[in-house]
Design goal:
The protein is of the alpha/beta class. It has helices spanning 24-36, 50-61, 95-105, 118-121, 126-135, 168-178, 196-203, 239-251, 270-277, 322-330, 351-361, 397-409, 429-435; strands at 6-9, 15-19, 38-44, 65-70, 73-79, 89-90, 111-115, 138-142, 146-152, 156-162, 181-189, 208-212, 218-222, 232-234, 256-263, 281-290, 293-301, 309-310, 336-339, 366-369, 372-375, 390-391, 414-416, 439-442. It folds into two domains: 6-20 and 237-442, Enolpyruvate transferase domain (UDP-n-acetylglucosamine1-carboxyvinyl-transferase, Chain, Alpha-beta prism), CATH 3.65.10.10; 24-234, UDP-n-acetylglucosamine1-carboxyvinyl-transferase, Chain (Alpha-beta prism), CATH 3.65.10.10. The protein is built from 13 helices and 24 strands. The structure holds shikimate-3-phosphate (S3P).
């Protein structure tokens, strides 16, 4: 019997044009804002990954009517607020889902119990509970602010909250709670994080002001008592997902891959800048505006990469992309230094530790720091990466996809455990990579 896992084996070049799945951050928000709004929200290109499907189910549990009309086409009939769910709300693997929903729910007179899978139950919720508590919400949770937890919402008061960590999820939770707080809410972020909530709130009819403070921080304000109105949402392609086929092309000789319709919002696209600095032949064409955001087609051709020092202040704009950047760095000449990335330790897994362990198992020189990762790279062009490992992913989709991409270009095949978790953010990843020519198959099946 085949072992439960997936193996990537080096083969020929990767070639073709593909579309990235819908952006995960925007997909969650379109469902949540649709449920908070009055009237109909029509969504096109929704990511139908497990995380987002959990949010869709949660929105139905909070009283919205949520319907799938066709592939990626969803309709949400919002009731202008949340009502109390009849059962526990299970957000699966999704930190974005649970944290944004808690913020949205906190301003309504209801009691809701949230849980998730073992990864989500291990992640810190205090970062959201602290500001929501200051606004007047109450909760009871496991030690360390862990799920399962029960949140009691109600009348909220205003807050001016300076983010202690650069987190778009915390910012969004406070802004969503602020919509129903007397006096609204203000979030001050010293380092800019993805701005989808601000942009989308405006598209749903809310007033949101964004100012730069004297120290360079962003000050975002929503007034209280604002009503949202249903909207049309076109979800762009997810740059975090596009990164996998693009990096695979960069490190596999003879490859040329184009991913169409990728979101290029500057607060999300810093990986592409970093790869270009590494010497990647990465070209953006057909740049356009869609749904109020920048979108383009991104073409990657196999390139001789060189190591770089990634500016730490860039981290919030590519925080989910460091695992795949580390794979590119393994094939680059000279070291790549990634610092200021402590937030990676509280993602779906401790991504600094797992990326370091996976690379080391594949014969790549790597050094782990409390808030950083240094990948040694190669000492000359075309130096091979050994591969030949079975990588433990702790159920983390991005750790799995990153190491499979490594396996497509390494000397010996690389396997990952729990490949089913890839569907949380990138259903169709395996088929897409196979369509481009990548040799991915169940672990235990020998390559043809
Ligand atoms: C997200 C914010 C980021 C990111 C996550 C999606 C969002 O998390 O890692 O994948 O949609 O707001 P943090 O807010 O914890 O940085």
């Amino acid at each position: 019997m085949a072992a439960a896992g997936l193996t990537a084996t080096r083969g020929g070049p990767l070639r073709g044009r593909v579309r990235a799945p819908g952006d995960k951050s925007i997909s969650h928000r379109s469902l949540i804002l649709g449920a908070l709004a009055t009237g109909t929200t029509e969504i096109e290109g929704l990511l139908e990954g497990e995380d987002v499907k959990r949010t869709a189910a949660a929105m139905a549990a909070f009283g919205a009517q949520v319907e799938r009309l066709g592939e990626g086409r969803w309709r949400v009939q919002g009731r202008g607020g949340f009502s109390e769910p009849a059962d526990v709300v299970d957000c699966g693997n999704a930190g974005t889902g649970v944290r944004l929903i808690m913020g949205a729910a906190a301003g309504f007179p209801l009691c809701a119990t949230f849980t998730g899978d073992s990864s989500l139950r291990g992640r810190p919720m205090n970062r959201v509970l602290k500001p929501l508590g200051e606004m007047g919400a109450a909760w009871l949770c496991r030690t360390g602010g862990r799920l399962p937890l029960t949140l009691r919402g109600g009348d909220l008061k205003t807050i001016a909250y300076r983010l202690p960590e650069p987190s778009a999820q915390v910012k969004s939770a406070v802004l969503l709670a602020g919509l129903s707080a007397a006096g609204g809410a203000e979030v001050i972020e010293p380092e800019a994080t993805r701005d989808h909530t601000e942009r989308m709130l405006r598209a749903f009819g809310a007033e949101v002001s964004v100012e730069r403070a004297a120290d360079g921080a962003r000050r975002i304000r929503v007034a209280g008592g604002q009503k949202l109105t249903g909207a049309q949402v076109k979800v762009p392609g997810d740059p975090s997902s596009a990164a996998f086929p693009l990096v695979a092309a960069l490190i596999t000789p003879g490859s040329e891959v184009t991913v169409e319709g990728v979101l290029l919002n500057p607060l999300r696209a810093a990986l592409f800048t970093t790869l270009q600095e590494m010497g990647a032949d990465l070209v953006i064409s057909n740049a356009r505006e869609e749904g109020g955001d920048q979108v383009g087609d991104v073409t990657a051709r196999h390139s001789a990469l060189r190591g770089v020092v990634v500016p730490p202040e860039r981290a919030p704009a590519m925080i989910d992309e460091y695992p795949i950047l580390a794979i590119a760095a393994a094939f680059a000449e000279g070291p790549t230094v990634m610092r200021g990335i402590g937030e990676m330790r509280v993602k779906e897994s401790d991504r600094i530790a797992l990326t370091a362990a996976g690379l080391a198992a594949c014969g790549v020189g790597v050094e782990e720091e409390p808030e950083g990762l240094i990948v040694a790279g190669t000492s000359r062009g075309n130096h091979p990466v050994a591969g030949g490992a079975r990588v433990t992913t702790h159920g983390d989709h991005r750790i799995a996809m990153s190491h499979l991409v490594l396996g497509l270009a390494a000397e010996a095949p690389v396997s990952v455990d729990e490949p089913g978790m890839i569907a949380t953010s990138f259903p169709g990843f395996v088929e897409m990579m196979q369509g481009l020519g990548g040799d991915l198959r169940p672990a235990g099946l020998a390559p043809a």
